Amino acid sequence: MNIFALAFDTGARRRPEGLIGRIVRLYAGVFAAWSIYAAGFSRADTLTLTITFVSLMLVLTFLLITPGPGGERTRIPPFEWLLAAAALGCGLYFVAHGDEIAERITLLDPLSTADMIAASTIVILALEATRRAVGLGLLVIVLLFIAYNLFGDRLSGAFGHGEISLSHFLDIMVFTTDGLFGVPIRVAATYAFLFVIFGTALAKTGGADFFFDIAAAMTGRSRGGPAKIAVISSGLYGTISGSPTSDVVTTGSITIPMMKRLGYKPAFAGAVEVAASTGGSLVPPVMGAAAFIMAEYTGIDYVDIALAAIIPALLYYLPIYLQVHLRANKIGLKGLDPEQIPPIGATLRKGGLFIVPLLVITWALVDGYTPTYAAIYGMAAVVVVSMLRRETRMTPGDALDVLADSCVKMVAVTGACAAAGLVIGGITMTGLASKFGTLVFFVSGHQLIISLIVAAALTILLGLGMPTPSAYILAATLIAPVMSRLGVDLMAGHLFLLYFAVMSALTPPVAVAAYAASAIADEAPLKIAVTAVSIAIGAFLIPFAFIFDGALILQGAAPEIALACVLVASGLALVAVAQEGYLNRPIGAGGRLLCLGIGLFLIFARPVTLHFL
Fold this sequence. Notes:
Elements: H1 3-8, H2 18-40, H3 46-64, H4 78-96, H5 98-103, H6 113-133, H7 136-151, H8 166-175, H9 183-204, H10 207-219, H11 225-241, H12 244-262, H13 266-279, H14 288-298, H15 302-308, H16 310-330, H17 344-351, H18 355-366, H19 371-386, H20 396-430, H21 432-444, H22 448-463, H23 468-478, H24 480-485, H25 490-503, H26 512-521, H27 525-535, H28 538-548, H29 558-580, H30 589-612
């Protein structure tokens, strides 16, 4: 078995049948409904809410996710019930002792034996849930950090630290909001979960079909229509799903076979879908859970983050679309048959109202509402819009399905965020971030450009096989302080890290999104991943540009912003031409090198000039 596949294999989805299945489905639905209430309307303290969320989600994880890729798919074994009961028991214990936990002084008031047992149990259960939902790779990383916490005092040199006892470790990790129940889980329990429910509801009522149909109506007649449909529909769907792998499976199951039938090679067809789906996490207004975590970490208003991300997101998709178009011209492809293309007027009449929920979310965010309330308003808008047509109207059973399915989608996000919380707590306890920063400074010689290259490489490395939120959290904790010390703008620095955290989903050797596409495209995952990196080349260039030129993230006057956009867009277009080796006719090696050189000059001439002036 491929070692990377082994490292990132997850448990299979268990689908219990009969009465047990109905009970578990009802539990998931009620839990999701409670989460909406807790995030938007409860006045309970943050620690109590996150503890309750984690324990209830752990119950669902053990009931619905098998220990490995195989296992019993329809029956829940007794041991799983035992794990679920242990998770529920831990949650009840912490909630029952909530007042005591709130009043105690961290590291001064000793933990009781019962506290130690409950804390150890929930950490172990969270680690097992991470292994099942995300994979062995992330579990190993977390265990290494835990080992460093507990035994790092035995190291000599700069990376050694003071002694941390098990009691000290559990006190920080479980009884404060600096560890397991810290920012990542808080974001998962509020913003992320609510937007997952919103996206699931939108897809359930026909929103996903509308995005696909409108993309087909707009681009189906042009050369290489199916690939252009993939670019547009995956970008639209990806902004609400927040998961490149889920997006590949959802839209790619339609677009990849269409591209292959039209004449694109399997590797290219799979790579287009992977690149387009991965970029969906960079498209406002939702941008996946990582953008909400970014808002929490930086203190920057989420609306400002979403606005700053607009131009880079559009620039990201420009070379992808151009490469698809140039490849179609180069190999002589045509568009779809007319009968396969939905009329744009009929498409808008049938599903145009699904734009309304996205507009409602955008309005709510711009008007100053929190992302939590924006998501709640968006969900309400989906329900109202769906009620206007009989075929999209949700029944109570459909609503329960939406809530239950959203819980299942949150299992991996919760596991990743729990693991990230444990890592962050450990980094905080040991001061590893400052030590890591010193190492980066040493490697880069205090040179900003070299530091950025190191930061990009480390972010991709940290994100291999991980969900985007985990990758971004690790990068933000370890690398962002270094960038700040080098004078990098806070917004630009964190968007830089977010871009490379997202790109880890398509970067070899792991490239989890490419593995998802390989089964549909019937092509080797590594071949798809390498091609996807080439197609998504903009994502590896644009972040360096906006680090030095704030106009690309709307920092500057309108003329500066317009000039920066034109230069970078022109440069990316020439890079796309160089990669394809085709414009109106084939271009030789010399012409390709010339296009590449001019393209890179246009992208970086203004940023470099601004940096050195």
